[in-house]
């Protein structure tokens, strides 16, 4: 079709040139007649897929997870201590003989005269206090058991880690109007001599 229009344009140019160059020929016998035609541009809608966001690999950090654990801890270990128990005493009162019974001689005045007499001296007693041990002192070894307590602490259940996640591209379809054939103008020969008259 483009070759046809090209030829028609060439013919029209020659015809116009002749009519302009020879104005006296106007009104003469027509040999061939041409009409100018216009062809509009031809468009069509095409659908294309375009990438809105490219895909890739995203590295995502997952934080660590923590938890609470309760455990039994030793506060004071078992030990043995020595405990001194003093002696138990008491005071006892006892009568004791201070001087034993005895026989002796002594001077006395009998009827105004000095007389030597044989006399008996009785025993003499006294009460004396003294301390006695009821229970002797001793050392006792006592076992003291260990002491425990419960303590809660935070521990890592799962450590932090980085994972790679594939993100697919985001694609969408867009409609676009494109020109299939541009608009054109040309000359077409009118068939038949009667059409020229």
TrEMBL record:
<feature type="signal peptide">
    <location>
        <begin position="1"/>
        <end position="26"/>
    </location>
</feature>
<protein>
    <submittedName>
        <fullName>Uncharacterized protein</fullName>
    </submittedName>
</protein>
<keyword id="KW-0732">Signal</keyword>
